[in-house]
Amino acid sequence: MLQNIGVPGLILILVIALIIFGPSKLPEIGRAFGSTLKEFKKSTRDLVSEEEEETDSKKEKKHLA
Q: InterPro entries given for it (predicted)?
């Protein structure tokens, strides 16, 4: 869905955000969005690594049995 936006659409979204929130709020919103995205990536990475560890331990148990 977001792949179809393109550069002109992104510029339009930024201009609308600038009009709605004003120039003083945009940096705060950007920081909040960035930290949220960072936390989401960290959580996803942790879940994937836990799943891989669980899968590896199951394979080892089957191999030893």
A: TatA/B/E, TatA/E
- Structural domain that includes position 27: 23-65
CA–CA dist 34, 61 (Å, integer): 41
Burial class (CB in 10 A: 0-12, 13-18, 19+), 26: middle
Residue-wise pLDDT for 15-39, tens only, equals 998 899 888 888 898 899 999 999 9
The CA R_g of the chain, rounded to the nearest whole Å, is 21
pTM: 0.57
22 — alpha (psi -120 to 50), left (phi > 0) or beta? left
Query: Any idea what DSSP says for residue 65?
Result: -
